[in-house]
From TrEMBL:
Pfam families: PNP_UDP_1. It catalyses: S-methyl-5'-thioadenosine + phosphate = 5-(methylsulfanyl)-alpha-D-ribose 1-phosphate + adenine. Phosphate binds at residues 31, 71-72, 104-105, 202. Pathway: Amino-acid biosynthesis; L-methionine biosynthesis via salvage pathway; S-methyl-5-thio-alpha-D-ribose 1-phosphate from S-methyl-5'-thioadenosine (phosphorylase route): step 1/1. InterPro entries: MTAP, Nucleoside_phosphorylase_d, Nucleoside_phosphorylase_sf, Purine_phosphorylase-2_CS. This is S-methyl-5'-thioadenosine phosphorylase. It comes from Pyrococcus yayanosii (strain CH1 / JCM 16557). GO terms for biological process: L-methionine salvage from methylthioadenosine; purine ribonucleoside salvage. Homohexamer. Dimer of a homotrimer. Residues 24-258 form the Nucleoside phosphorylase domain. SUPFAM superfamilies: Purine and uridine phosphorylases.
Length: 278
């Protein structure tokens, strides 16, 4: 039995009369971010798409109940093209989450987006090749609008919070998502510079899937490197090192922004589905 709202969930799948809390906010942590609080509960969720990257941790940030999934697994065992994106989003939805905060490490395609900067992306370009992009593989067919892929209300809250904390911030940025797991060639990187600001491997299909379930999604990116268009080519260890160095900024941002998220949504993200079905 699932009851919506703030209350509790009695879900036989978790064991007889297991009672867990229902957080409305979910965080998906990226490279270098494998936990954001001391969990009060850890929930093993089974979904029609298999298991999420890890059991979902439930805890509090500044008194607000939050669910957390490390995107790549607790020990970074899922590469970007093998992350169980559908299971992650489904599991959060099933636990009552309405708003998803996606934390990512990104390369910079612009001189002015510097390592350590925070970017609240406003657009994306999908250069991935072979992922599970949708919950609607038929017979129910949906075409969700992606003109403005991120929740305007969450973006505003995170931008204001980052400004108040005087974090190095870019209020906008186009995130190009590549398939990975390899990094780009110099020629690819030069091409991507023509039309994007930051580069990563995981925003897609996470944001699409959240939208398909009527959830809000905001991307909080930390720049970790200058990709390969600049002199020194990026490597994975550098990404993790820079992300770890900057994790505390992300933590402060979460603590400032999350208590500002209102209980009820006024953004319209849930309404997008109304016109999506054929
Ligand atoms: C560890 S280097 C490449 C890896 O880092 C980024 O992960 P995430 O977006 O989950 O922070 C990038 O997308 C790659 O998956
Ligand atoms: N340069 C880069 N390319 C792709 N994904 C990244 N994640 C962090 N830095 C990256």
């Amino acid at each position: 039995m699932i009851s919506t709202g703030k209350a509790t969930l009695i879900f036989p799948a978790f064991g007889i009369n297991t009672v867990i809390t229902m957080p409305k906010i979910g965080i998906i942590g990226g490279s270098g971010v494998y936990g954001v609080f001391e969990p009060k509960e850890t929930v093993k969720v089974h979904t029609p798409y298999g298991r999420p990257s890890a059991p979902v941790e439930i805890g509090e940030i500044e008194g607000v109940e939050v669910a957390f999934i490390p995107r790549h697994g607790k020990h970074h065992e899922f590469p970007p093209h093998e992350v169980p994106y559908r299971a992650n989003i489904w599991a959060l939805k099933e636990l009552g989450v309405e708003r998803v905060i996606g934390i990512t490490a990104v390369g910079s395609l612009r001189e002015e987006y510097k390592p350590g900067d925070i970017v609240i992306a406003d657009q994306f370009i999908d250069f991935t090749k072979k992922r599970e992009y949708t919950f609607y593989n038929g017979p129910r067919v949906a075409h969700v609008s992606m003109a403005d892929p991120f929740c305007p209300e969450l973006r505003r809250i995170f931008i204001e919070a980052a400004k108040e904390l005087s974090l190095p911030l870019h209020e906008k940025g186009t995130y190009i998502c590549i398939e990975g797991p390899r990094f780009s060639t110099r020629a690819e990187s030069r091409m991507f510079r023509q039309f994007a600001d930051i580069i990563g491997m995981t925003l897609i299909p996470e944001v699409n899937l959240a939208r398909e379930l009527g959830m809000c999604y905001v991307n909080v990116s930390t720049v970790t490197d200058y990709d390969v268009w600049a002199e020194k080519p990026v490597d994975a260890q550098e990404v993790i090192r820079v992300m770890k160095e900057n994790e505390e900024k992300v933590q402060r941002l979460l603590k400032r922004a999350i208590p500002r998220i209102p209980e009820e949504r006024t953004c319209g993200c849930a309404d997008i589905l109304k016109t999506a079905f054929v």
